[in-house]
Amino acid sequence: MAQNKNAQIRYKALDKCFSNQFKRFYINDLIEYCSHILSEHYAQETTVSRRQIFDDMDFMKSEAGFDAPIESFKDGRKVFYRYSDPEFTILKKPLNPAEMASLQEALEALNRMNNIPGFDWVNSLQTKLQSGLNQEKQNQQIISFEENEFLKGLQFLNPLYQFIVNQQCISIIYKGFNADRENVFTVSPYYLKQYNNRWFLFGWNHKENYLQNFPLDRILAIDSCKEVFIVNTTDFKEYFFDIIGVSNDLAKDPVQVKIKLSDNIVGYIESKPLHGSQKKIIDNMTTLKVKLNYELESLILFFGENMTVLEPPELVEKIKKRLAETNNNYQCTSTA
User: Fold this and answer.
1) Which residues of the chain carry a pLDDT beneath 50?
2) Which helix (H) or strand (E) holds 270?
3) How much is the pLDDT for 150?
4) Sign of dihedral through CA atoms 138, 140, 145, 147?
5) 157, 199 Cβ separation under 8 angstroms
6) What is the DSSP string of 126-187?
7) Residues 235, 191: Cα–Cα separation, whole Å
């Protein structure tokens, strides 16, 4: 399976080279680029042989591969490679038999994990893979998943995963939403979490000596560094236990949040609890025990007039203030 994965990464890397009509890629360039992509993917030095590149090109040109129109062009004594059709890319091609077989193999492995405790997440992944296979076979989509195809930073997801697995310290070039310039952080990466369709990296900030989270869509670049990796001591299951979202002020304690619900959303909140601590809804009332943070406020505001915070007073005042500011914005708009 690992060999299949390596091959797919190489094919995509070569496809990018052959699609570039403005640069000449000689064999050494192809070797260097594929080695770089694999090294970045696995977060460790990986090299590709000259023979492997030629084998890959033969496969890509074959009917069993992608029918790729790869041609060689002489440049003096050297030869460079490029697609004869500038519009061609393997990314637009249907899955080939080898890829279909790999996906089917992955599905069979997931099937065996279905009833193992702690692997409930496999069900949704299995459905997603199966829907992709069925769409390839039937050319008809019958299920969709919530995704943001325009989300930035997803290209860092797998390299970060590999850095975490290999306990490799990294350097991050980062620019916050309101920052005037970029910042560079030295980080020991520990954990990746998805929340509200965004991905976040949690890691130890070496300069400030605290656990920090970095939204991937604000990261501009990552690279390995020679700093000593600081071993993780955080239990992330416990870290997220008392919060909604990703913001956790360790100096705060969880508090009881009492909420009144409208008839319109009682059924919805019963079927999709706001948090694991949510109590049974009685007379349209429920309580949570969580830390106060921005994500909690945003979740409450999302439900608008259908949700009212009764306790604690601190949260009531914050919600009232944000609603007043929102109302003021609309009053300014109407008088403009």
Assistant:
1) 1-2, 142
2) helix 263-271
3) 60
4) positive
5) yes
6) HHHHHHHHHHHHHS---------TT-TTGGGHHHHHHHHHTT--EEEEE--TT-SS-EEEEE
7) 10
- Which two tokens mark 328? 């003021």
Q: Which amino acid is it at 181?
A: R
Q: Strand, helix or coil at 39?
A: helix
Instruction: Specify whether the CB–CB gap between 292 and 255 falls below 8 A.
Output: yes
Give the strand order in the sheet containing 285-290.
285-290, 255-261, 307-311
* Direct distance between the N- and C-terminal alpha carbons of the chain, in angstroms, rounded to an integer: 62
Spatial distance between the Cα atoms of 13 and 57, rounded to a whole number of angstroms: 11
Helix (H) or strand (E) holding 57: helix 50-61
Using alpha carbons, list the distances in angstroms from residue 49 to 30, 56, 271.
Answer: 10, 11, 55
CA-closest candidate to residue 69, choices 48, 90, 83: 83
Count other Cβ atoms within 10 Å, centred on residue 189. 27
* pTM for the whole structure: 0.65
Taking the C-alpha atoms of residue 41 and residue 32, their distance in angstroms, rounded to an integer, is 14
Instruction: For residue 316, give Cα distances in angstroms to 277, 297, 300, 312, 320.
Output: 19, 10, 11, 6, 6
pLDDT of residue 322: 92
The residues pairing with 260 across neighbouring beta strands, listed in sequence order, are 285, 308
- CA 158 to chain CA centroid, nearest Å: 8
Q: So what's the pLDDT on residue 142?
A: 46
User: Which residue, 176, 324, 195, 308, is CA-closest to 247?
Assistant: 195
Is residue 136 within 8 Å of 100, Cβ to Cβ? yes
Cα separation, 98 vs 66, in Å, equals 11
Residue 312: cis peptide before it, omega within 30 degrees of 0: yes
114 near 107, Cβ under 8 Å? no
* Distances, alpha carbon 191 to alpha carbons 204, 210, 261, in Å: 10, 14, 35
Q: Could you give the CA distance from residue 10 to residue 157 in angstroms, rounded to a whole number?
A: 18
pLDDT of the residue at 177: 81
